Amino acid sequence: MAAAALWLVVACDVRAETVRAGGTGAATELLKRLGAAFSAREPGTTLEVIPSLGSTGAIAAVADGEIDVAVSGRLLRVEEIGKGLTGEILARSPFGLASSERDPGGLASRDVAAFFSSTTAIWPSGAPVRVVLRPKSESDTARLAGLFPGMAEAIDRVRVRPEVVVAATDQDNAAAAETIPGSLAAISLAQIRTENRALRFLSIDGVMPTLEAFESGRYPYGKDFQFIVAATASPTTRRFVEFAGSAAAAEVLRAAGCLPSTVRIDPVR
After folding, report:
1. How far apart are CA 41 and CA 15, in angstroms?
2. How many of the other CB atoms lie within 10 Å of CB of 230?
3. How many whole angstroms separate alpha carbon 132 and alpha carbon 151?
4. DSSP code per residue over 106-122
5. Strands 130-133 and 183-188: what pairing?
6. What's the burial of 12, exposed, middle or buried (CB within 10 Å: 0-12/13-18/19+)?
């Protein structure tokens, strides 16, 4: 009987495995939720989430064998693919402009750049607009620059102003947007929802960035989360990535403010 019990303990230890993951800060809490659901499916398997790596840092960590899965807010570059990395977009979340203002109102898409870069812009409450930026190299900077007409130039104009806060990480960005009165920052619904951030979105062209509006195509601005692994990824790592893209994970993704990548989005014309 003792020998049988010992065999059972050893067998459990063999099956137990930790998958290490990290990446864009906006997906940190999303990863934790997916990891909990995966562990429930495969008892003994744990997902360890490494914070504050960023997309580029996490991709490099996968290439170096330091972590197993990177979740990136951008696509793989040619040189990264050359290192044997592969990626698949498994989740999408609405992406927009948010503020600490209680009622920030909305903007027409054609007016966003001028509002963003104005030194005299005010909110409906009369409070001055205080922009929070991300570093030039950050993927969300490029994403925001491509969303609205004239936005790249607007960001450049704001960046030279000495009073403007530049937030290094997604969490820094959200924290600054929460604490600065009259803030204006770019952020995903996934991060606001999973981190319970006290931020309110602006509507764009009369549409709020809800999951329903995003899925219907009425709100067209989003952020993709690409899950990246190495060619040498373990079977458990590959099962986790497969799980993240499965129908079983869809409920977790939706609760976290994301659409599974399998959902077709038809833009409203």
Report:
1. 13
2. 19
3. 14
4. EE-GGGHHHHHH-SS-B
5. parallel
6. exposed
The neighbour count for residue 268, using CB atoms within 10 Å, is 11
**Two tokens, residue 32:** 């934790």
Q: What is the pLDDT along the chain (269 residues), one digit of tens a residue?
A: 444 443 334 444 445 799 999 999 999 999 999 999 999 999 999 999 999 899 999 999 999 999 999 999 999 999 999 999 999 999 999 999 999 999 999 999 999 999 999 999 999 999 999 999 999 999 999 999 999 999 999 999 999 999 999 999 999 999 999 999 999 999 999 999 999 999 999 999 999 999 999 999 999 999 999 999 999 999 999 999 999 999 999 999 999 999 998 765 555 54
Placement of tokens 């498994």 in the chain: 90
Burial class (CB in 10 A: 0-12, 13-18, 19+), 223: buried
Residue type, 42: E
